[in-house]
Amino acid sequence: MMRARLSVLAVIAWAALSGCAGSMGSFSAWVHSGPRWRAEQSDTISVRARVLEARGELGMALDHWRLIEDIAADPKEAEREIQRLQEKIDATVRSHYQAGLAKLTNNRPTDARNHFLAALRLDPTFQPAMRQIRARFSPFPFRVYQTVPGDRPASVARKFFGDEKKAFLVAWFNHLPEDQALPPGSLLILPEWKDAGPPEIKEKPALGPLDLARDRLSGGDLRGAMALARQADPSDAKVQSLIHTIQFEQAAQQVEAGRLADAATSLAAVPDGFDGRAALAEKLDFALKQQQFNLDLKNARELFDQGRYGPCLDQAERLMQRAPDHTAVARLAAEARYRLALEYFDHQHYREARTVLESMEESHEAGTALKKAVHNRMVELAQVHYRNGVKHFINEDLNKAIAEWKIAIDCDPDHAKARENIENARRLLQKIETLP
Amino acid sequence: MSNRWSRFFSGASYTLVAVLILVLIVPAARGGEPPGRKPPPLLLVRARQGDTPQQLARRYLKAASKGWMIAEYNGKDTFSEGEAVVIPGAAFRPGGLSPDGIQIVPVMAYGDIGDTAGQKHRRLSRISRSAFHEQMRWLSESGFTAISPDRLVQFMAFTAQLPRQSVLITADSESQAFYQHAAPILKVFGMTATVFVAPGRVGEKGAMTWDQIRTLSEEGFTIGCRGRYGRSLTRRKRGQSFKENFSWIESELQHGKKKIEAELGKPCRFLAYPEGRSDNLIAAMAANLGFSAAFNQSPGGTPFYADRFGIHRSIVDSHTDHDRFSDLLATTIAVDLK
Question: What ipTM describes this predicted complex?
């Protein structure tokens, strides 16, 4: 009996667990986020719903209450809130729509648009507001015409475009033959357009060099434009103005292409008050500085490649003053500083190495390690000089002893004994000097 | 006998319990909704340790790219373990309408990007590769999502919602430089773009080949048309009648569209008016020829109710400095819509 129950329970457990495993990840996950957990979140969600309502997000607040209705143990409050919010939304939508219509009557189209949009925001399915927006604020290049008895493409063209010769437009837009009677009641699509000009363009008089130059300029052909402008009367102010425009455009293109010397020449020909000249001059100046900067950086890199780390470091530090945030320069300076210090270290010039490494960034790992090595060697050196000083002191040569201890302090400023001994030796010297 | 019956009923009661558990608990654990019922608009879930909006979107909306919806709905993009997170099952702000304003989508119009040997100067001037790189980096770091024109059209149809900071990047160019310089930069920053090509110029010196354009298309770039040769459609040739001019425009648009469709094997739905110029007749022709939307070159963002055949694009060129660039990327018209 017991065995039979156990086997049934095992089957139940297996089925439940395997059923849950597909979507929940694990049974425990289901337990933690199941109906009980969801019901516990009702209060949190209701707080969010009220916050959303206060912000004017009535639709989102309504969705939150609908969610609470689904998850709460007691959905009565949610049901009340849903009804209240639905009524509030309906009333607000209607109010905005009516306000929009009133604004249209008062010839305030922007205000009207905003009211219709406010209605749509609250109820995206509210078609009257959408129709107003589409009809009045969403231009579309077509209009629709319903044919009447006797209509032909030519008559429709005359009616809409004022010209029977435009019958081909009616035919083209509606995939119809041009010379056929149209069945009454048919809906035609016509372009929302009126021909502003005459039906056909007549031959224009030949253009002068100034017009041709302008044409070339608008097509981007600056050389052609300049050649044509030079043919026009140079005393004409319009010609002068066009030439300056071309020179300005040339300068702008040359700046963009990096031909800065050419750009400077072109810009020099443009008078000072010319529109945009000051801005372009500033841009050119910036580009020139940038070019010089890049040249100096290149030189610094060449010095590095040649193993001339001292001059390279000087150059890089000058560049850093001009562009403190330039990472490439900062990297080059750090690398040059490290290599120069390493050279000093290898030649046992520890003081110089220490001086160079003083401004080494901590992020440079090799530099930091070298700095530590230099420091250790200096401490050792300080100890050697300290002992030399002691020897001189024992031999009663106080001046030599003080000189050695000074070197020790120079090597290791934290050498307290050397500092103390110097003081003692000086006092002793004073006493000796004051002896009768 | 009675013993046998009692054993039978005892076994039956266990079986009944088992069946009830299987019927009630397992479906609840698998999502709680019997098949056929309309899913609720919101789903309440418990955040796991380290959950991000993208991970939650992958788990519950089947697409990590919808993470922005979870972040925007909950007003936050980090969640602690055990936190209640509301997953929106559908767009909750169609048309990007919020109490404080109207969402607008900035559309950026680039010309040639980088060095362009052999390509003629057009109205849209060039921008250097480094400036373009810097702009894309800024867009990425500022949280912008580059969208496709398909998504923009859905947004304009009031059927979809876009991330609050959406931008459509376009380039009127068939230059090699786009393929060699701009496309890799866009990919680095996870951006996409729409390239409007003039099929009559493809394969010319300095221009992309169809193979390269196909590659861009396969990589998720949208290929649009800017006429057959990219010539302005609003300039009528001297001596040309209105009808001749109309036929020429039709041929420019139709041949351009068909050539792209033939080469790529997919519909070409978007048009950039050559040199950014058009009028109502050209817009109507574009609509009648099967384009879904057309772009001009007037500055300003696009709300959902804008003209689909006159979508504004802001020109970005070498004269566009950082301040101007960020100004062009406004994404909201501040209006009280409460």
Answer: 0.84
